[in-house]
Amino acid sequence: MTTTNPATDPVTAARAVATECARAYQDVFAERLAAAYLLGSLAYGGYAPAVSDIDLAVVLTDARDGDSGTFASVGESLRGRSDLHRKLSTFWASLPALRDGRDDGRFPALDRLELADHGVLLLGDDVARQVARPAAEELSLESARFAVTVLATDEVVAEFREPRRLLADPVWFTKAVLFPVRFLYTSVRTAGRAATNDEAVAWYLDRPDPVAGSLVRLAARVRAGHPVHPEQMKPQLAGGLVPLYRHYIDEQTPRLLRAGAPADLVTAFARWRRRLT
């Protein structure tokens, strides 16, 4: 397994892993790899060693059958190299698809926007300016679809009511609390610009009497690396997480209706709201 120098600062170590992984993909795809970029907090700032992923974007000259399996197998191999490598999250698509505003690999709209706004080139030619920026409506609908697919499952709803994994896993804790905050901020304030967790939290806590404000502050502290005992987290989760999500659903549902969202998505939000009541 690969090891990292403990004297190296976390951002430098994470960037080194990202560069190493980009070169590994270059070895596999050779001349088909057009570019590789840093995304996420390593690109725009605010990297939190305790919870942040190492987000890598790989742009191919074209997409072919078998590419998805190749990325899956190479990614699994890379994540096995060290604890730090386990944080790797790879987004990929072909350059023609990115120019057309499509995803023919694994490249959701929000991450395509991050590439256009904040991508830091690691390898290849800089093609970020060629990426079509997703419309605000696409971002809103995609985040809503992600929310009901990932956060409205029976398992997650049960976890919200009786937290177990949330108390033991700081990454899941910060994501669960800050996802709705970032979704709300993106829908209300950014007008199609890629937002960071820090600015979303600052905006949310600056609102009059924010729902579950103390829980959001706690998640921001955990994300910044401050140790918090599960016994401190438990009452905050019990009192704040479900109200926070009900608030998100209540604010997002009218926007979905105004945007002409598919009926199944609106229905999923209504069903999710009932289950959290």
Descriptive report:
This is DNA polymerase. InterPro entries: NT_sf. It comes from Kibdelosporangium persicum. With 277 residues, the chain is α+β, with helices and mostly antiparallel strands. The chain has 2 domains: 10-130, 2-Layer Sandwich (Beta Polymerase, domain 2), CATH 3.30.460.10; 136-275. Helices cover 58% and strands 9% of the residues. The chain is built from 13 helices and 4 strands. It has helices at residues 10-29, 41-44, 67-79, 95-100, 109-118, 136-151, 154-161, 165-168, 170-188, 197-205, 213-223, 230-258, 263-275; strands at 33-38, 54-60, 88-94, 120-124. The protein has a 4-stranded mixed β-sheet, with helices on both faces. Helix 3 links the parallel strand 2 (54-60) and strand 3 (88-94). The chain starts with 9 loop residues before the first helix and ends with a helix.
| End-to-end separation | 47 Å
How many strand units?
A: 4
Order of helices and strands: HEHEHEHHEHHHHHHHH
Rg (C-alpha, Å): 19 Å
Instruction: Give me the side-by-side strand order of the main sheet.
Output: 3-2-1-4
Task: Sum this structure up briefly.
The chain is α+β, with helices and mostly antiparallel strands and 277 residues long. It has helices spanning 10-29, 41-44, 67-79, 95-100, 109-118, 136-151, 154-161, 165-168, 170-188, 197-205, 213-223, 230-258, 263-275; strands spanning 33-38, 54-60, 88-94, 120-124.
